[in-house]
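Sequence only, no structure available. Ideas?
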Amino acid sequence: MPLSTKVLPAVVDGRSDHATPAGIGADTRLRKAPAASQILMTALLGTMLGIVAGAIPVIVVLSLQRGYPMVLPRPHMAALVVLVPLFGAAAAWLLTKGTLPMTRRQTLA
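Reply:
I predicted one. Tokens follow.
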């Protein structure tokens, strides 16, 4: 599943929470920063778990076969762990709307 299908419901669910700071004139960074940080943490966790889940079978298979050197592409894996979350956070920062349409809040009474 793409990352956007995991993060989008949480962003949509928190839309009413973001309307309150927008209603009192908060800066647009207050809306963009949580979206970017949420994607950053989700992508970081996903890439780290994906690398571990992918590296374990490779290590097991290569350790069972004699004569094959066990070489893990550490620079590539490090670049993957760093660049994918940063790219996702940058995309969320750029693509998240800074302002929401003003709506009337519902009261409990």
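The longest helix spans residues 29-64.
Hope that gets you unstuck.
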